[in-house]
Design a protein that fits this description.
It is a single chain. By secondary structure, this protein is α/β, with parallel strands linked by helices. The protein contains 14 helices and 10 strands. The chain has helices at residues 13-19, 34-37, 39-50, 57-81, 88-107, 127-134, 178-183, 186-192, 232-245, 264-273, 291-306, 331-340, 346-385, 389-433; strands spanning 115-120, 153-157, 162-167, 174-176, 200-207, 216-220, 250-256, 279-284, 312-319, 324-325. Strands 4-3-5-2-6-1-7-8-9-10 form a 10-stranded mixed β-sheet, with helices on both faces. β9 and β10 form a beta hairpin. The longest helix has 45 residues, at 389-433.
Length: 434
Amino acid sequence: MSIFDLKRPKPTAARRDNKQGNKRRRPPQAAINPVLTNPAEAIDLLAKIFGCKDETETNSNVVSTVKTIKKEWYDFFMQLESLDFPHCSMLYKQAMELCNKLLNLEMVTSIFDKTVLGLGGQFSSGKSAFINAIAGLNDLLYVNQNPSTSIPAFVMKGPREEFLLSNTHGRDGIHVSRNQMQAISHDFHKQYDIGFSSFISSCIIQTPSYNLPDNIVLLDTPGYSKPDSEESTALSDRQLAMSHLRFADHLIWITTHENGDVSQYDIDFLEELSPATPVLFVVTHMDGIGATSRKRILSKIRETVLKMTIQCYGVTGYSSPDNKETDDANLIMRFIEEISLRKSDRKSDVNAIFEKLVTDINELLTSEIQAEIEKTAECREKIQNSSDVKSLMALSMMENYSSKRKEKLDIALAIFQEVTSSTQNAINYLIKAK
């Protein structure tokens, strides 16, 4: 469907009532977002997102470069896989993590030296409402998001209210209005049959009302569906959430009291994510629950969390409408104050991952090549001293195998040197640009 072929918004109940002459009184409604009712406004938003400008060429080139590097690493590991190279899968994951961090460096330049506090959890767990409350955003973040429309949002202090989008084609710094930002929601998808998650990679929200430490950036991530089936959407939601949260320096995990405990889906997700720092668990929707029930729920969740393989900072209940922890523990603000004292150094982080990856692969390649050299020499020595025909044939086959494997490892080493050179150049460019 063309973006200019937007269907007319569905008539509201108020319009239908007026046409039918129904004079009944209705409670006052919130102001209607014009982007959701006027197709021309919707087209303007889409034109901003898809529009091309000359200054975005550099960003697109960087994204293309990192994608090329990803392909080079993939080809290199396919070569190693064919040689039964040790720890191939683990090393490949490290290489992909490095590439993802390079993309993140390019796409979110304004938060490069800040500490990112990620908010994770399933859909409808209350992440956006929680951020609105603790950061003093006055419902700035749209709450009713769904998988087809939600995107990660970086929320931070700024001199004025500003909304910047990054699209999936490498263009960032796309300015939109508050109405346009809040229209990027399930309601837009419902009105026009167009979702945003496939072509908007992230957004940055700056506002002077942000009341957390200036060096803390909150990352509101899309939730994920319970993988009750093998549907690609559920798997994609989970993968996207995992990818976004890997960028965070610290993590608050949001769950609701309705679950009564941390779900097995959350446990599996968190243990795969394997955060490097202790996680704070916040149980939302706790307003209106008696003290006895709150204590039982929090106790059960603490018991479950302590059995997990990740580090836990603590577990607390929270009421977003009241903007307070339900048991006056003040654990959330203590957690935020502590992490605000730790400086994030993404340059060192990227360099450390790259250096470790290069060192590990180089040592393994050198060791494997040396082993084949020694095996070949040993076989040749045994061939010279053997007179048994069957032994000579077996030794000859072993010598041939070791010799050919050594040749392939030499080729892999040459490819590795090319890939590391390309990756180092990309790192140098991105870090210099900061």
